[in-house]
Amino acid sequence: MSAPPRSASLRQAQWQPHVLALNAPAAYVPWLMEGGSLTARLKAHSNAFRVQCLRQRTAICLSDEAAVIGMHRPGRVLEREVLLRCDNTPAVYAHTVVPRSATAMDWPLFSALGERSLGTTLFGDPLVRRGVLEFARLREGHPLARRARAALVENGIAAPDAHILYARRCLYQRRQGTLLVTEVFLPAVLELIKTSTNKR
Ligand SMILES: C=C(O[C@@H]1C=C(C(=O)O)C=C[C@H]1O)C(=O)O
């Protein structure tokens, strides 16, 4: 089978279940492997946590998201993009997609989240089943790397020098619905210092 065209390989990442395969700097590993809510971990590493909702709209999912959410090819999804800010510094860019086939019964709170954390609706809901984490190195050409950088620039923050951004994603299921959350860790996350153990 011929290799995908170079442009396709730039647009897609190699998602894998083993974080060590990324050869990420050691400081990223505890963030990538956080087993609970990332929101809770970010709150424990800041005095003021905020979800900045960049956009929530109907869109076409990315080519390396389609199969994960049960689509044969990229199709219509409800897309949510946020910056997770710790003491006003963006630490994570997150991209969530829900197939339009999902109903409000599947994800009753998703469409009206606004600046509430998605995590607060996923963790603690007994109907939500969480899949395994996958990890990837996003090169500059990957759509989510481009969007994360653009989000920073649009907010007056210089895009990171790093040519690689480290990301993880997780598939959630509730009733008949699927929801894929991808979290792109911005280098600023490495500057966060644990402020509390009781804000998880
Ligand atoms: C899944 C979680 O929700 C977080 C909040 C998000 C949002 O509000 O869009 C997106 C990604 C997550 O980091 C979590 O806290 O673990």
From TrEMBL:
Pfam families per record: Chor_lyase
Protein's cellular compartments: Cytoplasm
Pathway, per record: Cofactor biosynthesis; ubiquinone biosynthesis
InterPro entries registered for this protein in UniProt: Chorismate--pyruvate_lyase, Chorismate_lyase_/UTRA_dom_sf
Keywords associated with the record: Cytoplasm, Lyase, Pyruvate, Ubiquinone biosynthesis
Entry-linked Gene3D superfamilies: Chorismate lyase-like
Binding residues annotated for substrate, in chain numbering: 80, 118, 183
GO cellular component, as recorded: cytosol
Molecular-function GO term, any one: chorismate lyase activity
Family: Belongs to the UbiC family.
Species lineage: Bacteria, Pseudomonadati, Pseudomonadota, Betaproteobacteria, Burkholderiales
GO terms classed as biological process: pyruvate biosynthetic process; ubiquinone biosynthetic process
Record's function text: Removes the pyruvyl group from chorismate, with concomitant aromatization of the ring, to provide 4-hydroxybenzoate (4HB) for the ubiquinone pathway.
Recorded catalytic activity of this chain's protein: chorismate = 4-hydroxybenzoate + pyruvate
Protein name: Probable chorismate pyruvate-lyase
Signal peptide: none
